[in-house]
Amino acid sequence: MMNREKGWGKLQYMGGLGYQDSVIVTMKGLELRLVKILTVFTSIDLSSNHFVEELPMDVGSLKSLKGLNFSHNNLTGYIPPSPGNLTDLEWLDLSSNKFTGRIPRELADLTSLAFLNLSENRLTGHIPRGPQFNTFKNDLFAENSGLCGFPLPKTCKNSSRETPPETILQENDTEHGGWFEWRTILMGYGCGTVAGISLGYIIIDSKKLERLARSFDRKGAKMRRKSRRNARRSYQR
After folding, report:
1. At what angle do helices 165-176 and 178-236 cross, to 10 degrees?
2. Of 71, 145, 178, 185, which residue is 20 to 30 A from 46 by alpha carbon distance?
3. Which of 137, 163, 189 is the last residue of a domain?
4. Distance of CA 150 to CAs 10, 110, 139, 206, Å?
5. Where would one find the signal peptide in this protein (predicted)?
């Protein structure tokens, strides 16, 4: 199952000429009986046992794995991101365990994943979005009181808690040019505003001075005309 070779040529089955192996497996939520087992059939079904502790990280090295079923056990801890390396994985069933923490974002990147069941655990946080995750029904995430987001009816109250701080910083730097660049723009805008207001006051004050000067000129002209009239009257007398 660690070998990615597809086994070209004629299909071969496990077992000898007089006897063929058979097995009952749960594939994509359906229990099936395979009367013959293809040698290229790579699936692990360890459901309904009493396994405890965490899911092994080594699962991520089984590159040819098509299906993985660990449902109905007593597995605890976080779901490791290593299953995200299984690019051929078509179904994954980890339901009815005691997994905690968030759903690994790596699982949402699996483009071959047609079936996923994470119900009846203790998972928390926002359900990641992805091409396959967007097609899953809400009952595949049910009985996880801490989960929120599509396809569940429960919305996440604080979206900032659902995105890692590093991602938020990267998005801000990418979309808005970074805090330093914005701070520079705001400083320039503030300085320009102050300069504009100051220039406006200068223009306003200069206009006031001009009007005041004109007023004095008019008053001075009136006084000069009045003094000339008085001088003429005195001369005539």
Report:
1. 50
2. 145
3. 163
4. 44, 18, 11, 64
5. none
Tell whether 157 and 173 lie within a shared domain. Answer: no
* Judgement on whether residues 128 and 146 belong to the same structural domain of the protein: yes
> Is 5 contained in some domain?
no
Q: What total of structural domains would you count in the chain?
A: 2
Q: Tell me how far CA of residue 207 lies from CA of 116, 117, 198, in angstroms.
A: 76, 77, 14
- What DSSP designation does 111 have? T
Average pLDDT estimate for 6-23:
70
Sheet with strand 52-53: strands edge to edge = 52-53, 74-78, 98-101, 122-126, 146-148
Of 114, 130, 163, the position where a domain reaches its end is: 163
Residue type at position 29: G
Q: Domain of 89?
A: 23-163
pLDDT tens track for 161-206: 444 433 333 444 444 444 444 444 445 545 554 445 444 444 445 5
**Distance between CA atoms of residues 133 and 114, nearest Å:** 9
* Terminal Cα distance for the chain, rounded: 133
